[in-house]
Recover the amino acids of this structure.
């Protein structure tokens, strides 16, 4: 009823923002994988640098699927539907480890990254199906980023994103100094 009318616009605005930001991240990584690899780890052999570029290309969709999955988990938990908060991450790890044990394989880093992306996408899809079936929350593309509810969530998320980015940049700088 009225709760769904209040939640849907905010849910949709946040998810549209995440999809837009995630799409831009994936596009940026696809276009700039080589300079990113050179910046993060200079001095690598050309073979290792190419593998790192492929890993960058596969890790961006992983960040995207895990981010959306975490958001869907939070919405499900807010509706008192018991789902592990990191369901997508859990499923991606179980899928890769289970596949390695089941098939007695030693996977390359690229194969592991692909497996993580595929299994995290499955987790995200499962959460989406559960959300649609168990709640009245519905998604419609919405660029209504001036709503107070969206802005409050964005302020909280921006603080976390800034702290995480600063930590990652610091780690990358220290790594660069070591190579």
């Amino acid at each position: 009823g009225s709760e769904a009318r209040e939640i849907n616009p905010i849910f949709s605005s946040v998810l549209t923002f995440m999809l837009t930001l995630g799409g831009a991240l994936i596009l940026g990584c696809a276009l700039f994988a080589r300079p990113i690899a050179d910046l993060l780890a200079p001095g690598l052999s050309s073979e290792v640098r190419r593998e790192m570029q492929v890993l960058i290309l596969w890790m961006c969709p992983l960040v995207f699927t895990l981010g959306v999955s975490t958001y869907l988990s939070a919405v499900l938990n807010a509706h008192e539907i018991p789902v592990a908060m990191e369901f997508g991450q859990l499923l991606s790890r179980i899928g890769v480890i289970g596949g390695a044990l089941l098939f007695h394989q030693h996977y390359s880093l690229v194969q592991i990254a692909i497996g993580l992306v595929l299994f995290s996408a499955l987790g995200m899809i499962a959460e989406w199906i559960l959300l649609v079936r168990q709640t009245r929350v519905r998604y419609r593309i919405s660029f209504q980023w001036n709503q107070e509810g969206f802005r409050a969530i964005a302020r909280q998320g921006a603080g976390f994103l800034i702290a995480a980015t600063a930590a990652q940049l610091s780690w990358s700088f220290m790594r660069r100094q070591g190579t």
About this structure: Residues 135 and 174 are 46 Å apart (CA to CA).
